[in-house]
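Anyone up for a design puzzle?
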């Protein structure tokens, strides 16, 4: 989900695992010259999701790599199946209230999909739409209850 700390935790996990780190949103911007927010605003979600899937499938995963992807990435274009076949997935599970608090402090321009949905009800609805995909991710990590060392241990 947005605000769960995917990029921050991904960097820390990669460092602890001595792995390469890739932020999918940054990879999209590097490949296309346009950040995800601009894709969403200018071209719409369907165009963004197509580019997101293409960039995801073409990442250089030749060495041990931690990839931070957006909360919607597994929900489109069969990405979840591809990701399950090509890596070990971690779902960062935080309570909606905590996500809301984090997102209210973030730059709204970077999250156009949340326009009009930045409320407890809006995030609850977004979670409900994505839950079917999130429930298929075998490794759940609750950053508000667990330590990074716990997650690192699960990779061993």
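Challenge accepted. My sequence:
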């Amino acid at each position: 989900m947005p605000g769960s700390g995917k990029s921050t935790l991904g960097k820390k996990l990669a460092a602890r695992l001595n792995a390469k780190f890739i932020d999918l949103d940054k990879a999209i911007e590097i490949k296309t010259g346009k950040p995800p927010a601009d894709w969403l605003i200018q071209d719409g979600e369907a165009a963004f999701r197509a580019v997101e899937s293409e960039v995801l499938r073409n990442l250089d995963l030749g060495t041990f790599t931690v990839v931070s992807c957006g909360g919607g990435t597994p929900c489109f274009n069969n990405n979840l199946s591809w990701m399950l076949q090509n890596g070990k997935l971690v779902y960062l599970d935080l309570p909606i209230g905590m996500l809301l608090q984090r997102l209210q402090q973030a730059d709204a321009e970077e999250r156009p999909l949340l326009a009009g949905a930045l409320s407890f009800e809006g995030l609850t609805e977004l979670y409900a739409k994505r839950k079917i995909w999130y429930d298929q991710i075998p490794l759940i990590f609750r950053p508000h209850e667990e330590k990074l060392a716990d997650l690192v241990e699960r990779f061993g």
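A detail worth pointing out: Residues 91 and 135 are 9 Å apart (CA to CA).
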